[in-house]
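Please produce the structure of this protein holding nickel (II) ion.
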Amino acid sequence: MRCSKITMILDVQQLYVHFPVSSTVIRAVDGVDINIEQSETLAIIGESGSGKSVLGLALLGLLPANCTVNGVIRYHGNNLLTLSENELEMIRGRKIAWVPQNPTGAMNPSMTVGNQIGEPISLHIEKNKTKIRKKVLELLQFVRIIPPEERIDSYPYSFSGGMLQRSLVAMGISGHPEVLVADEPTKGIDIMNKQAITYLLRVLREEGITLIIITHDLPFVQNFADRIAVMYSGRIVEIRGRQEFFDGPLHPYSRGLLRSLPENGLHPIPSGTEDSEENDGGCRFRVRCTFAIERCRIEPPLIPFPDGSAVRCWLYDRREKVA
Ligand SMILES: Nc1ncnc2c1ncn2[C@@H]1O[C@H](COP(=O)(O)OP(=O)(O)OP(=O)(O)O)[C@@H](O)[C@H]1O
Ligand code: NI
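Below is the modeled complex.
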């Protein structure tokens, strides 16, 4: 469901994030173009190491120092990659917030959960300690960490994994961000906590927050996302509406992902045999692709469709017939 008037909130163009490591370069994000619409829920999926978290961190200006970054990330027209650290701090947490992966490692063990949740508020919104505490109590209630009065002064070690995950959501939204980027919010938590997180995200979505969810959890995506971006080896290989994607994924890698789901018979995607060819400039998936043709030795562009979808695969190039 899209409104007729679409506002772009983030516009990523030709984004490259490379890590020089000893004699080689890890091309974690390698030419990503994506527009993110205001109030949409975008899921970023793809196998481990495909660059999802690095892309998410780039949107927050939270990349580690050992990488090189190129491209443009426009947020309301400003290129985030050219802002100073001070300027970025006005946006991070307040406008664009991050819910990190691995709740246990993400919290400061020597600071109370309440103070951590309150930090974005005290940085950006409110200096009065009593008012901040009241806001944190409301947030704890919202994420069902109850009774909030008994939990607010606890340290992270006394929380379960699910409670920590919910605390991280509370921390993420405490500065009233416009965009929330959540890295694997449903990973490693039990079904009850997963339902709780899904409910929270649903409420946020209804409030109009733009959600970018990095995940491996396809059943969750199927129930939740408006659009899906599939990453493979640092590149987006398919961007589709949720329904269209699950009804008929286009890219051979996306098809493989859905076929590997238990309800579709758990067919694994074959692994590549010619690893050395993966980085030689052609389609990176071709060594694993059952549809590969000679032309796949040339890198395919992201081919746009009239409905806003796009797929990076020569099989969909309509400029000339492909056998
Ligand atoms: N600080 C770093 N230094 C060097 N390489 C890195 C660094 N951070 C990430 N990478 C590399 O970048 C690539 C992409 O990593 P990323 O964490 O974005 O993958 P991912 O898709 O989020 O995987 P997962 O699903 O396992 O979380 C990987 O090859 C990873 O090893
Ligand atoms: Ni990741």
